[in-house]
Amino acid sequence: MTGAITIDIERSDSKGRYVARVEGHSEEAELTFSIASPTLVIADHTGVPDSLRGTGTGLALVERLVADAREKGFKIMPLCPFVNAQRKKHPEWADAFNV
Fold first, then answer.
1. What is the pLDDT of residues 42-94, one digit of tens each?
2. What average pLDDT does range 6-14 have in this prediction?
3. pLDDT score for 99
4. CA pair distance 83, 44, nearest whole angstrom
5. Which of 38, 36, 32 is nearest to 74 (CA)?
6. Residue 28, beta-bridge partner list
7. What is the pTM of this model?
8. Strands of 15-22's sheet, edge to edge?
9. Are 4 and 29 a contacting pair, CB within 8 Å?
10. Which of 99, 24, 17 is nearest to 64 (CA)?
């Protein structure tokens, strides 16, 4: 059974990352982004260590990004292949993406 996933956000001027930590695991996963404008965020990269593969951690990171986009009024440009693949699997997220 997978432990609880907690996701924090770290942000600098024009870059940031979502950091996922899974209860019972020492490694963390991340989704990095660049802030192109107040209304556009570029999803650059998603990194999930082997120890967390198959736990839903990568999907949880994208879900958080989508939720934040909707709440804060920005669109996501999915340059990251994983984020783009998840976008295609979830047509209900279309409103959050700029493609």
1. 999 999 999 999 999 999 999 999 999 999 999 999 999 999 999 999 999 99
2. 95
3. 83
4. 9
5. 38
6. 21
7. 0.94
8. 5-11, 15-22, 28-37, 40-47, 75-78
9. no
10. 17
| CA end-to-end distance (rounded Å), the chain | 36
Q: Are 14 and 29 in contact (CB under 8 A)?
A: no
Total residue length of the chain: 99
Convert the chain into a string of H (helix), E (strand) and C (coil). CCCCEEEEEEECCCEEEEEEEECCCCCEEEEEEEEEECCEEEEEEEECCHHHCCCCHHHHHHHHHHHHHHHHCCEEEECCHHHHHHHHHCHHHHHHECC
Pairwise CA distance, residues 41 & 88, whole Å? 18
| The token pair that represents 57 in the structure block | 């951690």
User: pLDDT at position 1, please?
Assistant: 45
